[in-house]
Amino acid sequence: MTRQKVLDLYFMDARCKLIEIAAFLDRVDRAEGPADFRWGAFRQALTHLEAGDSGRAEAVLRSLSDPTEEPVAQAPGKGAVGAWPGRP
User: Fold this and answer.
1) Do 10 and 26 belong to one domain?
2) Considering Cα of 42, then 58, then 56, then 63, what sign does the dihedral take?
3) Of 85, 50, 47, which Cα lies nearest the Cα of 65?
4) The pLDDT of residue 80
5) Rounded to whole angstroms, what are the CA distances from 59 to 25, 28, 34, 51, 52?
6) CA separation (Å) from 62 to 2, 13, 73, 76?
7) Do residue 2 and residue 28 come from a single domain?
8) Tally of domains in the chain
9) Which pTM was predicted?
10) Range of the domain at 5
11) For residue range 21-67, what is the model confidence (pLDDT) as tens digits?
């Protein structure tokens, strides 16, 4: 597929998502109180978007995922939170 075709097909969807992310960042910036680990993980994931390679989606996904390989007996909490709290 040509670059022009990709832009024709997907630009408006990506534009919408980019505006939604900008609005999310604005809401978090205006909110009061401390942020939890998800905020740091999100900000770190954003840094991968500026990379000049084609592996950005994988890099973002890996930066938000639990990298451990050992199974746990029972998952903590009630459900997924979208980011791994063990990241520094």
Assistant:
1) yes
2) positive
3) 85
4) 76
5) 20, 23, 26, 10, 12
6) 28, 23, 23, 20
7) yes
8) 2
9) 0.82
10) 1-33
11) 999 999 999 999 999 999 999 999 999 998 878 899 999 999 999 88
